[in-house]
Amino acid sequence: MDVIRKWLYLIGAIWFVLNLPFQFDFPPTALGLMVFGLGWILRRDWRSFFRSCLSNPPWLMVFALFCWIAFGTTYTENSAKGARELVLKIPMIGWPLVLVGMERRLSTHRTTILKAFVWSMLLSSLLLLFLAMRDFVFTGESTVFFYKALFRWEMVPIHYFALFLSFSAALSLDWMLRKRNEEKTGAALGWSLALLIFIGMLALSAVRIQWLVLPVLLIKVWIEHLRSDRSLALPGILLLLFSVAAFTLSPSVQKRLQESLVEWRARNDKMDGFQTNERFYLWSHGTAMIAERPILGYGTGGGNDALNRSLFQEKASFWDGEEMRPLNERRYNFHSAYLQHLGNHGIPGLLLLLLMILYPLFKYRGAIGLQGQLFLWACLLSFTTESMLQRQAGLFFFSFFYAWLIVHPVAADLHEETGARRRSER
Questions:
Q1: What element of type H or E holds 318?
Q2: CB 117 within 8 A of CB 19
Q3: Of 64, 76, 181, 192, whose CB count within 10 A is highest?
Q4: What is the DSSP string of 156-168?
């Protein structure tokens, strides 16, 4: 039975992670969680599982947040939408649940899972570049390589894919430096190539929040390795220069920089044909709506309705990069995971989300290691400008890696501490 369960665990996890950069409707990405869950259901030792649940703070925070989201369906103004959102959130509790008490003898090494994700990201990136090249050959339009035109996977919008790219770039740099230290030149060159491709894709995407996320992650990796090898200073400078050159030369980045300057000037000065970024209005109206119901919020699925009622009265238009568009023409979310949780779930919802990210980042640094820290920093920063947990792409990414890189390592660390304490008592 253990052999069967180990294979179910491996197949389920690999299936899920390989599909994250694509997330086609069929075959479904969620099938991986179902297969993995089958291996979990077949376990025999449930006592140790419940002990692991009760002793694992990151898991308890996930459980508390999910329960609070479920409670939000009882007072929301949009019960149908609230129910759909609760179903969407099932992976948030599903992956941590099946991994919190996973037996070590059946566990797949997390580096294997991470490498499967990065190789899938590399394949996805190369396919996107190939499709853009094909369209360029037939149309002659160079715009197919830039911003939203380059990213074609319907279930993985550009801002989510850019987050995946930053995380993949940081992991590639970490493995490249490790292979260099081990004098494995071929492997180091392979990860170097993957790193350059991910940086190039980020330059073409021109997602502005990743201009902050990517350097933070890369600098963190480099500092970690510099502690043991001072000779890495020069390669680090060369990588920095390449990254700056890639972003500087990208027409998409140049266009986004110009738009950012215009948006900043438009905050105070009326400019013909231009208004400031839509987030200025979303966050302004959003904070005003949140101030009316700060404790409980508007309920699961109700925050967006309240926000759009307020936006319907807004007469301003914004520049979307191509044309002026009235704000009240379409529906929006808060474009910030933190404001989204305040709007839907009130102060308790926001505090639980922040605790899920910040508590392991400082309390369990040793247990989660560099890879877990990179994941948490990527999410902490990316969540500021996108409601990442409101769509399948972001929710799948966060729930899967939070379980593999935070909940599971903490469970293993606590298990080792308990075993050491019992041995010392003997």
A1: strand 317-319
A2: no
A3: 76
A4: S-HHHHHHHHHHH
Q: Measured at the alpha carbon of residue 410, what is the angle toward residues 406 and 416, in degrees to the nearest 5? A: 155
Tens of pLDDT along the chain (426 residues)? 889 999 999 999 999 999 999 999 888 999 999 999 999 999 988 998 999 999 999 999 999 999 999 999 999 989 999 999 999 999 999 999 999 988 888 888 899 999 999 999 999 999 999 999 999 999 988 889 988 899 999 999 999 999 999 999 999 999 999 888 888 889 989 999 999 999 999 999 989 899 999 999 999 999 898 887 777 766 777 777 777 777 777 777 777 777 666 666 666 655 554 555 678 888 988 999 999 999 999 999 999 999 989 888 877 766 655 666 777 777 889 999 999 999 999 999 999 999 999 999 999 999 999 999 999 999 999 999 999 999 999 999 999 999 999 999 998 887 666 555 555 655
pTM of the predicted structure, to 2 decimals: 0.93
Cα pseudo-dihedral 61, 73, 94, 341, rounded to 10 = -50
For CA atoms 155, 160, 164, 165, the dihedral sign is positive
